[in-house]
Amino acid sequence: VDVARAELATFLAARRAEIAALDPRLLPDVDRLLDFTGTGKWLRPQFLLAGHLAAGVTGEVPAEICAAAAALELVQACALLHDDVMDRSDTRRGLPSTHRAIAAAHDADGWSGDSDHYGESVAILLGDLALAWADDLFTESATRLGRLIPALPAWRGMRTEVLAGQLLDLRAAADSGETPGEQVQQALAVNRWKTAAYTVERPLHLGAVLGGASPAVVDALRRYGAAIGVAFQLRDDLLGVFGDPSVTGKPAGNDLVEGKRTVLLAVARSALDPTDARLHRLDDRVGRPMDAATASELAELIAGTGAPQQVEQRIDDLVGTAHAALDTADAAGTRVLPDDAVDLLRRLGDRAVRRSS
Amino acid sequence: VDVARAELATFLAARRAEIAALDPRLLPDVDRLLDFTGTGKWLRPQFLLAGHLAAGVTGEVPAEICAAAAALELVQACALLHDDVMDRSDTRRGLPSTHRAIAAAHDADGWSGDSDHYGESVAILLGDLALAWADDLFTESATRLGRLIPALPAWRGMRTEVLAGQLLDLRAAADSGETPGEQVQQALAVNRWKTAAYTVERPLHLGAVLGGASPAVVDALRRYGAAIGVAFQLRDDLLGVFGDPSVTGKPAGNDLVEGKRTVLLAVARSALDPTDARLHRLDDRVGRPMDAATASELAELIAGTGAPQQVEQRIDDLVGTAHAALDTADAAGTRVLPDDAVDLLRRLGDRAVRRSS
């Protein structure tokens, strides 16, 4: 990941020089994008590197693989910038969100027009720039490795899937005509495409094909990634309602305040009779600002439906599926994934699913 | 261009099938993107095909070149979808803009939440999808031609430049602290990157490198494209104030109503003394709804500053530069561009610069 960070820095320095040559007045805005990119946990690059290891390539990891891994952080920069505009979020990672910071600078400079709208517009364009640059970095790296053609379907799949998952998520929040059972299915589909495919399955797939993995290896990795990725999101759902704010760094019941359409909430709602007063209490409160007492009351209400146990059970089942995928054997009974990759993936998976923050 | 349309349709049908496999509930939104893409004049693909002709390739144009040309219409779909969100435009090409149409469907279906915000969010994601798919289509086509590596710098340059130009345009509208002279320079820089590079220079460049053109041909085409592209935008500026609504299809003085920061307006403002009442009249009125009488009064005011003649002169100079670029000769005195390409580019250029709509 350190090499990936260095590759990203080199790539972005070249893009910054191009922007400066076009018009240096653009640098303050573009520097916001540069400062923001790659400040997260580098989860997706880690899975790409694990996929590469699983391809059985020995020796030092080529710089081009690290560069391809870094490209995932540029896709993520686009996703977060556009998400924050769509969610109207004021903060990101404890700092003002990019569109808010730009709006504040607009105000401070006494510029004309609506500063909020200006901040959102600049953030949309910076997100577009990040997405375009992600493609540039990925395509260059894969081409230098001589592995572009086998990698393109995975790259295309990842971007289509995450955007489709986000569209589904918007729909889920807006379409109030669905039955509780349909809502559970819709929330699971959002997890599958917006989180699992984007965060785990496709990064593993990309690393594998860039390393020249066999179809059997790719298949085992993708099954593992799809299962662990959904389990990762289900753990997130539980932490979003029951997490300890001093550990998660987010307010108690954050998902409830934000009105996230999680599987946990959908399962809880589907467990309640339409006439149950608790259902109305939930629907009245979720998606609004609330004090800690209300957050804790709603958390208890959800716990009372048995939904958390159901979600925990689902996580256990998915971890079982994931571990079985890691143990996939060929016709001769030999495991298709190398031992070191299996060990790494077990560790990464456990960390994703058993965490408390 | 007909083959390019067919290539785009084939590509989008494959993407639609992928989306349907992910979740068929997404089809209504994705179909809006499909219906919208490529409904314009296909100006950029035409320049890409002209660039390919200029490379001196004889015989039928390969389908992959047409597919690469069609990819430009997907970039354009992203630009227009995001532009309409940023400009809060209600219409596009005489129909409701995409975010407005989605908001109206949200209302009609009785969905929950703010329908305007929902429409904007979906339009942002559909724009992202178009940008990602543009890359997929271009990369695939260039790879199949075996010309990806030489084409990548032009492809990267085009996307970076158009986004940089849009960022500059936002700045120009918001930064009220600049001198009239600085405003002219800023408006010219916006034209250079947002219009000229994106619409003419880089499409020609792409077509040329995909056809294996020599550096001399690429250089001549780019000089031609940069000049004609800026002239094209200056003609647009004049039509936006003095155009005949029955021919342009836009209301009289449309650019004045929208408050576009055109070179024409910047030149007019820089010609007026800071104490001139006409300057205040302009600054009071531009960027607001106005009746036809006011639009015509402001057009006369701008004409009175001599700005239109200056802009016409600039167009003539640029056309001269462009024609000189087409006549670029090598050391032996032979023109570097083939005759048929020169003829086509003269025609395309004249149409872009002499039009009345």
Averaging pLDDT over every residue of chain A, what do you get?
Answer: 94
**Unreliable stretches covering 5 or more consecutive residues of chain A:** none
Oligomer: homodimer
What's the total count of β strands of chain A?
2
Q: If you had to describe this structure to a student in words, what would you say it looks like?
A:
Two copies of one chain form a homodimer. With 357 residues, chain A is an all-alpha fold. Chain A has helices at residues 2-22, 27-36, 43-54, 63-87, 98-108, 115-144, 148-174, 180-210, 215-242, 245-248, 254-258, 263-271, 277-285, 292-304, 307-326, 339-354; strands at 91-92, 95-96. A two-stranded antiparallel sheet of chain A has the order 1-2. In chain A, strand 1 (91-92) and strand 2 form a beta hairpin. The interface between A and B is large, with 63 and 63 residues.
What's the helix and strand layout?
2 copies of one chain form a homodimer.
Chain A: H1 2-22, H2 27-36, H3 43-54, H4 63-87, E1 91-92, E2 95-96, H5 98-108, H6 115-144, H7 148-174, H8 180-210, H9 215-242, H10 245-248, H11 254-258, H12 263-271, H13 277-285, H14 292-304, H15 307-326, H16 339-354
Antiparallel strand pairs in A: 1-2
Helix pairs in contact in A: 1-2, 1-4, 3-4, 3-8, 3-16, 4-6, 5-6, 7-8, 8-9, 8-12, 9-15, 9-16, 12-15, 15-16
Q: How would you summarize this macromolecular structure in one to three sentences?
A:
The structure is a homodimer of 357-residue chains. Chain A contains 16 helices and two strands.
Q: Which features does this protein show?
A:
homodimer; mainly alpha; two-stranded antiparallel ribbon; 16 helices
